[in-house]
Amino acid sequence: MNITKIKVNLTGEDLLSIYSEFVSVEGLEVKNIEISDGINITGRLNKGFNIDFLVNLKFESYENNIIKIEITKIKVLNIGILKFIKNMAIKYLLKSFKEKGITYNKGKVEIEYKYVLKDVSYVDFDIENIFCYLGCVNVEVSNVQVSTAGLIKKDVQLIDRSVAKDYEEDEEVKIIRTKKFGIKPMYPEDACVQMELLGHNFFVFFNAETEQVNVVYKRKGNTYGLIEPEF
User: Fold this and answer.
1) How many other β-carbons are positioned within 10 Å of the β-carbon of residue 63?
2) Average confidence (pLDDT) over 130-153
3) Cα distances (Å, whole numbers) of residue 29 to 26, 84, 165
4) Residue 162: its pLDDT value, please?
5) CA 122 from chain center: how many Å?
6) Nearest-CA neighbor of 102 among 114, 84, 86?
7) 167 φ, ψ to 5°?
8) Contact 203, 187 (CB under 8 A)
């Protein structure tokens, strides 16, 4: 069955469902999506450390089967998360999304939607326009092909971006030194003392109470933080 044109309104719950079915990344929990003049996403990344975040997105343009979205705000909600942990989390997300057809380039997110939906064999369509209005994402599509038997064949490849310089290249993590040291069991308070004696901003130690590797770090106001991994 072919449909020439159709308009679709997607709610925040619809977008959550699309993420769960087609874009889901291991360790990334999208908790809520609200739509106003843009898309507001709250969630949590759990890759050994829990990082709660808020991201605001706004549609910028659409061309050549690519939806371009501007990141207007990104905020880590946890107080005291170390910068290098934030950077590692961002690197992990960018790599995971890139494999699914979603890339980051100079403050913009680009979604190759046909690649994201490449395994959906019961529908195919072209997007003519996409925008936020009245609490929904409004999508105008054309050339809609529907097959209840799932017989639509798609041959979609990721766009070659090897010549484009994106975030991953700009912010490449370069490890130039490796240091090994013995970890002795101690209590968090003793680890803070050791950190001060060494003049460091953080200290890795084996927690004698929990028998796990933890990290203590300095915070503002002459206080300290403790990072405990979750597996």
Assistant:
1) 8
2) 90
3) 8, 21, 28
4) 61
5) 28
6) 114
7) -55, -40
8) no
Annotate 164-175 with DSSP letters as a single string.
Answer: S--HHHHT----
pTM beyond cutoff 0.70: no
For the beta carbon of residue 222, count every other beta carbon within 10 angstroms.
Answer: 6
At residue 166 the predicted structure's pLDDT band, cuts being 50, 70 and 90, is: very low
**CA 101, CA 110: separation in Å to the nearest integer?**
8
Q: Which residue has the tokens 């798609």?
A: 154
Give me the sheet containing 212-219, strands edge to edge: 185-186, 202-207, 212-219, 223-227
Q: Which amino acid is at 165?
A: K
CB burial of residue 174 (10 Å; 0-12, 13-18, 19+): exposed
**What is the Rg, in whole angstroms, of the alpha carbon atoms belonging to the chain?**
22
What is the residue-wise DSSP string for 160-229? --TTS--HHHHT-------------EE-HHHHHHHHHHHT-SEEEEEETTTTEEEEEEEETTTEEEEE--
- Given the structure tokens 């609490």, which residue do they identify? 135
